[in-house]
Design a protein that fits this description.
Helices cover about 50% and strands about 20% of the residues. It has helices spanning about 5-15, 20-30, 35-50, 85, 90-105, 110-115, 125-135, 175-190, 200-215, 225-240, 255-260, and strands spanning about 60-65, 70-80, 140-145, 150-155, 160-170, 245, 250-255, 265-275. The radius of gyration is 25 Å and the shape is elongated. One of its GO terms (molecular function) is translation elongation factor activity.
C-alpha cells in the first residue's frame, strides 16, 4: 500500500477541485495512482448524479454569446438545486467553460456540446459530472443556438432567464437595442410563437375546443359556437404570439408595429427563451 502524503492529497485537490477528504480517500483506494484516483472521484460524481436524478433544479446561471457579425447566438443555462451553489465561483466558471466550448466548436445540439473534449482530456459531460461530485447537487444543462440576419440577446437580472432573438430586414436600425427590447418582451410575456402561423395545430384545435366549451357553458346557441371560438382564438393569438402582443413598454403599439417603426419591414424570424425553474 502506497503512503499517501499531504502533498499528494493537495496535488489531487489542485487537479480536480475536490475536497481534501475525498481526495485522500480516492488516493488511498487507488493506491497512490493519480489517474485512477481521478476516475474514482468522477465515478463518485456519477453516483451522486444518479441518486439525485429526480431532484428539482430551480436555481442556476445563464450565459450568452453572440458572434462578432451578429448572425449567430448561443445560450447555455446550467441549473442546480440551491441558490448558494449557483453563486459559487467554480459553478459559474463551468458555465463559462461550457459557453466557450459551444462557441469554439459551433455545437449544433446539447448532445454535441456535452461530447466536446477539452484540453485536459475531459468532455463537457465529464466536467459537469465532476462538479456534481464536488457540490453534491444535481446539475442540468440547457443549450440553444440561433442563426439569423441579426441575433440579439438578453439575460434577466436574476441570471436565470435568457433569450436569443433573430431579426430580419434590420436596415440601419440598432439591432442590439431593438432586439434587447423584444427579448425583454419575450422574457416577460412568454409568447408561444412568433406569430399565428407558428402555433402548432394541436394548440389551435385545443383553443377552439376550449372556446366552444366556454361559450356552451354560457348558454350560447350551438350555431354560434364556431364563430365565438374563432373570436377567442384570435384573442389567443393577440396575447400569446410575439408579433401580435402589445409592447410592454408602450401599450399603444404591438411588437410588429414597434419593429416596423424602427426599420420598414423589420420582423422577428425566430426566438429561443430559456428559464431556469420556470
Amino acid at each position: 500500500m502506497a503512503a499517501i502524503t499531504a502533498a499528494d492529497v493537495n496535488k489531487l485537490r489542485t487537479m480536480t477541485g475536490a475536497g481534501m477528504m475525498d481526495c485522500k480517500k480516492a488516493l488511498t483506494e487507488a493506491d497512490g495512482d493519480f489517474e485512477a484516483a481521478r476516475d474514482i472521484l468522477r465515478k463518485a460524481g456519477q453516483k451522486i448524479a444518479d441518486k439525485r436524478a429526480e431532484n428539482t433544479t430551480s436555481e442556476g446561471f445563464v450565459a450568452v454569446a453572440v458572434s462578432e457579425d451578429g448572425t449567430n447566438g448561443k445560450l447555455v443555462a446550467l441549473a442546480c438545486e440551491t441558490e448558494s451553489v449557483a453563486k459559487v465561483a467554480n459553478f459559474r466558471e463551468l458555465v463559462q467553460r461550457i459557453l466557450d466550448a459551444a462557441v469554439r466548436t459551433n455545437a449544433a445540439t446539447k448532445e454535441d456540446l456535452l461530447a466536446v473534449k477539452e484540453d485536459d482530456g475531459l468532455t463537457i459531460q465529464e466536467h459537469i459530472t465532476d462538479l456534481t461530485g464536488k457540490i453534491g447537487e444535481k446539475l442540468d444543462l440547457t443549450y440553444v443556438t440561433l442563426t439569423g440576419e441579426k441575433v440579439a440577446s438578453y439575460i434577466h437580472s436574476d441570471s436565470k432567464k435568457g433569450v436569443l432573438v433573430a431579426l430580419k430586414n434590420v436596415g440601419s436600425a440598432d439591432a442590439a437595442a431593438v432586439g434587447r427590447d423584444v427579448a425583454m418582451q419575450i422574457v416577460a410575456m412568454k409568447p408561444v410563437a412568433v406569430d399565428k402561423d407558428g402555433v402548432d395545430s394541436a394548440t389551435v384545435e385545443r383553443e377552439i375546443e376550449i372556446g366552444k366549451e366556454q361559450a356552451r357553458a354560457e348558454g350560447k346557441p350551438e350555431a354560434m359556437l364556431e364563430k365565438i371560438a374563432q373570436g377567442k382564438l384570435n384573442k389567443f393569438y393577440k396575447e400569446q404570439t410575439l408579433l401580435n402582443q402589445e409592447f410592454v413598454k408602450d401599450g399603444s403599439m404591438t411588437i410588429a408595429q414597434l419593429l416596423d417603426s424602427k426599420s420598414k419591414g423589420m420582423t422577428v424570424t425566430d426566438f429561443k427563451r430559456v428559464a431556469i425553474g420556470a
